[in-house]
Amino acid sequence: MAASGSRHLRCVSSELAESSGGQMESFPLFIVGSPRSGTTFLRSVLNAHPLIQLTNECRVFALLKDTVDAGSHRPDLLSPACRDRFGRFSRRTLGAWVERFYREELEIKAPIWGDKHPSYADPTVLSGRTGSIERLPLSGSCLRLIHELLPQARFIHIHRDPRHVANSLVHKHWIGSVEEGIRVWEQYVGEIIDFFEEIPADLALTVSYRTVIEDPDATAASIGRFLSLADASPISDFLMSQRRAPTPFSDPVTDIADLYVVPGESTGDDTLLDLAGTAAAQLGYAAA
Questions:
Q1: Backbone angles phi, psi at 128, to 5 degrees
Q2: Contact at 8 Å (CB) between 100 and 5?
Q3: Quick one: which of 120, 141, 124, 138 has its CA closest to 59?
Q4: Which residues of the chain have pLDDT under 50?
Q5: Stated pTM of the model
């Protein structure tokens, strides 16, 4: 079965390469960031390119993490005698299984395929949280599992000023206070920064929400280089069109007013950045 699946995926990859002139490599792509950082918008930006097709929070890796890292350790679900072998088999085969799901069931045809989901970077994705309060023990994010199952996967981290993220979280009634929102931002972003330091540099790209909104050409050029796109103009064209006539998104994922109003750099209490830890300095929001 595994060999058959591999042959099938090689055929799919060949067909995709032919459809894009024989030059486009096929690989997975994942957009991550803290909630309210522009991940939904960036997915729409990338999906404007004909060679990219990303789902909106399919969340399949949260399910796989629950199965491989949690469920497989329950003796009522899996015999302890099979646990190690199941784990090795899962990590060897589930990457191909995910791509088959995308290609066959979701009918994704574009060479660059994947998902946008902030909670892939949530260190409490299985253990859960109440506001900024984590339940212990922490489960760890899905990022390392994605990289292990799909070692060719690339990741784009879109980040936004933690003060603006925190205010947006409060506005959406997802968090109780701005201070809690800052802590949530730090947990997500810190996890992503640490993960990016572990993987090859050519698999990770970090972009600023402000740059995406305010500089379409620079954004398109950066993403085009990262994804090896011969023509990144569909990305810049889409961004320019959104500046003229923004496309509304459905609540509660995002709202258009919040998306396109980018506050000035001085907005917010600078003392809040202390709660954001070193991540705020690493991304240029606070002094190092």
A1: 85, 170
A2: yes
A3: 120
A4: 1-21, 250-257, 260-263, 265-267
A5: 0.85
Q: What is the pLDDT of residue 287?
A: 72
- Least Cα distance to 285 among 215, 210, 218, 180 occurs for 210
Cα distance between residue 161 and residue 155, in whole Å = 20
* Residue 140, CB-side half-sphere exposure with 13 Å CA sphere: 13
Contact of 212 with 261, CB cutoff 8 Å: no
Q: What is the pLDDT of residue 175?
A: 86
Query: Dmax of the chain from CA atoms?
Result: 61
Pairing of strands 154-159, 204-208: parallel
What is the distance between the alpha carbons of residues 186 and 163, in angstroms, rounded to a whole number?
Answer: 11
- Residue pair 65/138 in contact (Cβ under 8 Å)? The answer is no
Tokens read off for 242: 């959104």
Give helix then strand counts, H and E, for the chain. Answer: 12, 7
